[in-house]
Write a structure and sequence with these properties.
Keywords: Membrane, Signal, Transmembrane, Transmembrane helix. By secondary structure, the protein is α+β, with helices and mostly antiparallel strands. Strands 22, 24, 25, 26, 27, 29 and 30 form a seven-stranded mixed β-sheet that branches.
C-alpha cells in the first residue's frame, strides 16, 4: 500500500509538472479602462503580472488623485489543461487637470529577471467623457450605443512595416480592425487604391479575432486582420495611402437590431527615397537581397546543336519585376528569347523565392567561342548600396566543318551524264555558238574570279554589322521593344482566356512598363508614370496619345483592387495592342 501511495503521489506530481510546464511564459502589462477621460471622471488603472511571482513596483501617479487603491487580487485557472495565474494591482483615480499625462512603466522582479510595462499616455479633456465599456484581458463587455462610442470602441488601421523606404523596397501593409464591442458584424470593406505601388497579396484565411489583445494607449482591444499586402513603391517622393473604410453593425442580437457604425482608417504617408549614388550600367531594377548563378549544360558540341544557358536569381525582394540580365552572344550564335520561370512565395516576411531565365543558343559555325561574363546588379536596402555579382565567362568549343553547315541544303535537281553515247534530251531552247570560242577572258571567266572576293567582302560586312548591333545593347532593346511587348501581351491573353482578371491587368501593366523601359532606354527601377509622361513630351509625342497611355496604366493599377466597368477585358486588350503600335510608330 505504501508503494502504491508513492506511485500516486509521483503521478500527481508529474501532472502538476506538466501544467506548470505549460505556464512558463510570464507577461507583465498595464491597462486603463478608458482613454481619454474627463476632468470629472474616475478611471481604473491596473498592473497585471501573469504566470509569475515577484515584487511589483508601481510608477509615480502624482498627476492624478488616487481615490481608491491599490487593491491586490489573484486569479488562478486551468483551461484545456493550460494553467494561468495572475496577480493584479488596481487603482481608481481622478485627473487633477486637463492635458496629456504619461504614466511611467511599472516594474516587477521575477526570479531575478526584471520586467517593465509599456508607458501609457492619458488624455484628459474638460468635463466628462462618454464612458467606455469595462474591458480586461479575458472579457469584453459593451452596452453603449455606436453613435456615442464608435471612435473609442472601434478602430480601423493600416499598419505599415516601414514608413521610409528606398525605391522598389518592399513594405508589408496590414489592414486591421480593433474593437471593444461585445459583438460586431462587418458588412462591407473598401480597401484603398494603391497608385504608385506594385503589390503582391498574401493568401490569408478568413478574418478571425486573435487570442491576444492589442494595447492602444493602454486600452486593450480585440484584433482581427482583414488583409495583408506587400507593397513595392514605383516612384519617389511622399505617397499617401487612401484610408480603408468599413461598414458594420455592433451589439446586434435576436431582440436588438444593434447600431450601424461606419469607420475610416488612418491615411499613412510613405516617404520613398531615390537610390543613392551613381546607378551602375548593369542595374536593371532589382531591389532586395539576392543570390545569383548561371551555367551552361555543354562546353563542347557540334555545329547546329543547342546549348542551354540557365540564370537563377534567388532571394527576397521585387522578384516579379526583375528583368533578364543583358547578355552578349558571339555573332555566329543563333539565340532565342529566354523562358522565364517563377517560384515565388508571398508571406508576412515579404516576397521570397526565385526567378530563372533559360536561353536556347545554337552555334552555327565551328570554332572556339566564349559567352562573356554575365553580370547581375541589385540594390540592397539593408546595406544601402548596390551589390554586383557575376558568373563566367563560358568558353565553348564548336566542332565540325564549315561544309557541314549547309549540308542537305544544296539542290538535288542535277541531271548527271551517265554514258558517252546517249545524252538526255534538252527541252530548253539553245543558241548555236562556235565550238572554238574559249572560256578564257570571257564574262563568265571574270565573274568566276571576282565572285569569291565579293562574297568574302559581303560576309565581313555582315559580321561587322551583326557585332555592332550586339554591342549596342540599348539599340537592340529599342529595336526589339515592340516584339518583346507582344510576347508579354501573350501572357495577358492567357489570363484573359482563363478569366483571371487580376492577372490579366498585371500582365498588361508589365507589358506597358517593359515596352516603355526598352523603347526609352530607361531602367525599370527609374521608370514611373511621371517619368514616362515627361520623356514623351520631350520627344514631342501627341498629348492625346500621352494621356491615353497614362490612363491605361492607371486603369491597370486600379483594376487590381476594384472591378473596371468602362469596357470589357477583351476591348481593353485590343486597345492596348493598338496603343503600343501607335507608340512604336511615333517614338524614334
Amino acid at each position: 500500500m505504501k508503494k502504491t501511495g508513492n506511485h500516486i503521489i509521483f503521478l500527481l506530481f508529474a501532472c502538476l509538472s506538466v501544467f506548470a510546464a505549460k505556464a512558463q511564459e510570464t507577461a507583465f502589462y498595464a491597462t486603463v479602462d478608458k482613454n481619454p477621460v474627463g476632468t470629472g471622471d474616475v478611471f481604473s488603472y491596473q498592473i497585471t503580472l501573469e504566470n509569475g511571482r515577484g515584487d511589483i513596483t508601481p510608477p509615480s501617479l502624482a498627476d492624478f488623485n488616487v481615490v481608491f487603491g491599490p487593491s491586490r487580487s489573484s486569479n488562478y485557472r486551468i483551461v484545456n489543461g493550460e494553467q494561468t495565474s495572475a496577480i493584479t494591482l488596481s487603482y481608481t483615480m481622478r485627473p487633477k487637470s486637463k492635458g496629456e499625462f504619461t504614466i511611467d512603466p511599472a516594474q516587477a522582479l521575477v526570479n531575478g529577471k526584471r520586467f517593465k510595462t509599456e508607458s501609457i499616455t492619458v488624455k484628459v479633456i474638460e468635463g466628462s467623457s462618454s464612458r467606455a465599456p469595462q474591458t480586461n484581458r479575458n472579457q469584453n463587455q459593451s452596452n453603449q450605443s455606436a453613435s456615442n462610442t464608435s471612435n473609442e470602441n472601434l478602430k480601423v488601421q493600416i499598419q505599415l512595416s516601414k514608413r521610409k523606404v528606398y525605391l522598389g523596397e518592399q513594405i508589408t501593409a496590414t489592414y486591421v480592425i480593433l474593437t471593444r464591442f461585445r459583438n460586431i458584424d462587418i458588412e462591407g470593406t473598401k480597401f484603398p487604391g494603391l497608385a504608385g505601388f506594385w503589390t503582391e497579396d498574401l493568401k490569408t484565411e478568413q478574418a478571425r479575432w486573435e487570442r491576444e489583445y492589442e494595447m492602444v494607449n493602454g486600452v486593450p482591444y480585440r484584433k482581427a486582420v482583414l488583409k495583408r499586402q506587400i507593397l513595392f513603391p514605383q516612384r519617389t517622393g511622399k505617397i499617401q495611402i487612401d484610408p480603408l473604410t468599413i461598414s458594420s453593425h455592433v451589439n446586434r442580437s435576436f431582440l436588438n437590431p444593434g447600431e450601424e457604425v461606419n469607420m475610416a482608417s488612418n491615411s499613412p504617408t510613405i516617404e520613398v527615397m531615390p537610390l543613392p549614388g551613381k546607378v551602375p550600367e548593369s542595374y536593371n531594377g532589382a531591389v532586395g537581397e539576392f543570390t545569383f548563378s548561371a551555367n551552361i549544360d555543354r562546353t563542347e558540341l557540334p555545329a547546329n546543336e543547342a546549348i542551354n544557358l540557365k540564370i537563377i536569381i534567388s532571394g527576397s525582394g521585387n522578384l516579379s519585376l526583375i528583368k533578364e540580365p543583358e547578355l552578349k552572344f558571339p555573332p555566329d550564335f543563333e539565340t532565342y528569347d529566354p523562358e522565364t520561370k517563377d517560384r515565388i512565395n508571398v508571406s508576412g516576411a515579404g516576397v521570397t523565392g526565385s526567378r530563372s531565365f533559360q536561353y536556347l543558343v545554337i552555334p552555327r559555325y565551328p570554332g572556339d567561342y566564349e559567352i562573356p561574363e554575365i553580370i547581375f546588379t541589385y540594390f540592397d536596402p539593408a546595406k544601402e548600396a548596390f551589390v554586383t555579382k557575376s558568373e563566367g565567362p563560358f568558353p565553348i568549343k564548336v566542332t565540325g566543318s564549315a561544309a557541314s553547315v549547309s549540308k542537305g541544303q544544296r539542290s538535288q535537281n542535277i541531271v548527271k551524264q551517265t554514258t558517252e553515247d546517249i545524252r538526255y534530251i534538252n527541252t530548253l531552247a539553245t543558241s548555236l555558238e562556235s565550238k572554238n570560242k574559249q572560256f578564257f577572258k570571257s564574262m563568265g571567266y571574270y565573274a568566276g574570279i571576282g565572285a569569291p572576293f565579293i562574297g568574302f567582302i559581303l560576309f565581313l560586312a555582315f559580321r561587322k554589322k551583326r557585332a555592332t548591333e550586339l554591342d549596342d545593347v540599348q539599340g537592340t532593346r529599342r529595336r526589339k521593344a515592340n516584339k518583346m511587348a507582344r510576347r508579354r501581351l501573350k501572357m495577358a491573353e492567357k489570363a484573359l482566356k482563363a478569366d483571371d482578371s487580376k492577372q490579366f491587368y498585371a500582365e498588361i501593366f508589365k507589358a506597358l512598363y517593359g515596352y516603355m523601359s526598352d523603347k526609352l532606354g530607361i531602367p525599370g527601377s527609374l521608370l514611373s508614370r511621371q517619368v514616362i509622361v515627361e520623356n514623351l513630351k520631350e520627344r514631342n509625342i501627341d498629348d492625346g496619345l500621352i494621356h491615353e497611355l497614362s490612363d491605361t496604366i492607371e486603369t491597370c493599377e486600379m483594376a487590381r483592387f476594384a472591378a473596371v466597368a468602362e469596357m470589357s477585358n477583351r476591348e481593353f486588350y485590343n486597345q492596348t495592342v493598338k496603343l503600343i503600335s501607335k507608340l512604336d510608330s511615333r517614338i524614334k
